[in-house]
Amino acid sequence: MTTWPEFTVGQGAGEYRYRFAWTYPLFFSPHDPNTLYIGGNRVFRSTDEGQSWVPVSPDLTKADPETLLPSGGPVNREALGAETYATVFALAESPLEQDLLWAGSDDGLVHLSRDGGESWTDVTPEGLPERALVSMLEPSPHAPGTCTLAATRYKLDDYQPYLFRTTDHGSSWTRVDGGIRRDHFTRAVREDPNREGLLFAGTECGLYLSFDAGGSWERFQLNLPVTPIHDLKIKDGDLVAATHGRSFWILDDITPLHGFDAAQLKDDAHLFAPRASARILPRLFLGAYGAKVTEKTPEGWDEVTYLDTGANPPRGAVIGYHLRKRPRGEVTLTIGDADGNPIRTFHNRTDEEKAERKDDPHAEVGITADKGFNRFLWDMRHPRVTAIRGDDVAAETVIQGAMVPPGSYQVTLAVGGKRWTRSFTIHVDPTAGRVLKRDLQAQYRLWRTITDRTEEVVGAVNRMRDLREQLGGWSRRASGEAAAQATELNEKVLALESRLTVPDRRPGWTDTNNAGARLLDKLTALIPVVSVGDYRPTDQAEEAIEDIAGRIDEVLSAIDELIGGDLRALNDRLDADGTPRIVPG
């Protein structure tokens, strides 16, 4: 440690000018980014990025001579400095009050300074056992006189958890670890900045949660491995856990805990207010790199697990809801704009059950309805475009809906005839820089124009394929002039369909690369052009869409003319022959 750069290998800690643990506390002041604090046996401060250090405390440890001897034994002293004892192991400044410093030592002392280190007071809790290691001090983000500490004594064969909390600047402390297993010793404790008294404790065997400032605790392990939790961080509504040997873990969106009340669990259902979410556009080549495994979630989404890279937060609005019991009937989530106009509806029915629905055949399967807590991720999009019937290359024929612009939205949960509605906000990607609202509105309108026209073209293609299937059948079954008319009309319909898309698209057969881009390909290829960034579409994009849409209208008009002319004539002949008519889709 270069606070005092003297080589001390082979010496006991009692011979050091300053003592530092192998992992000593270090932080920038939350009130002044130019002030840096570190903890040795004394607290030091630097205001010139470590060029110089000033001690701002006396020795804040017991400094028992017995604990300052060289480590090791008679054969090898092992005095390398890694096992230095009697140091300030935990150090923190109040986020609410500058110069309010808390310091905890690894030999069982806690000190407080309210003047930036000019004077210190011993505020060690009476119930803290001898030689307890104060592993973390968490000044409350809600009250300057409140602080929670975590301590351990496992090195003394005591595996109990030790959590204490003060609300009067350390004048009195209350032990607050009831509910934590007696052999899960505590290493870390954090208080949520958005809800006073919401605490998270990291223990040697996992994570715990308290809603009442430590009055009671419950296991909060979820899918975490059973592993030591050495530190916790709450950042932008996410909980980050630093484990020992099992990497970092992030629980995305803990905002449902901010408004959580145990009484809510007695209601049939409860919809939590979603937190504000960033609208992050799809990136080119997203997910193209790194080994990964893709699995379907119960909600029908693709869940990607990267094997050699980290995973980004979920993209979309996270919606949480609680069900007291699994309902027998249907559960729906409806996303709407600020005025409640529906954008998209999801339900918990299976595809087979969906086929029997009469009230809303367009509702999408996508949500769970399990007893307890449920979570749904809305991708901020309108419904996807209908797939072209008969195409085997699903990835090429399913077009995602347009992403909504930043603004205010609503979500409504419907269970058993009851409804709950919450409002939430979608904001601009924070990495996008300066973005104009009118530009994103222009992008959204053009994006919707493309997807709406795509839906129209796909509908026309599907009708033509249905018509060609009927005409092909009549070509084989009819005779004479009727068969000839059916064959000729079939070829005309095929020629028009071929202008819109490649007919009979199959893997390994005809595709766009070999057959050339058709109007539908040209139309959908404009989506990434329009949506690749948070800015207004170019003038040429607007012109290209207008041009392609005009050519599509020519084909659609020709189809209408065929149905009104050639198909009517064929149906008149079939009527004369007493055979069933061909019905256009």
Question: Describe it for me?
Answer:
The chain has 585 residues and is an alpha+beta fold. It contains nine helices and 30 strands. It has a six-stranded mixed β-sheet with strand order 21-30-29-25-26-27, with no helix packed on it. The chain has a four-stranded antiparallel β-sheet with strand order 1-2-3-4, with no helix packed on it. A hairpin with a 4-residue loop joins β18 and β19 (248-251). α4 (437-477) runs antiparallel to α5. It starts with 25 loop residues before the first strand and ends in a 9-residue tail after the last helix.
Notable characteristics:
alpha+beta; 585 residues; four-stranded antiparallel β-sheet; 30 strands; six-stranded mixed β-sheet; 9 helices; elongated
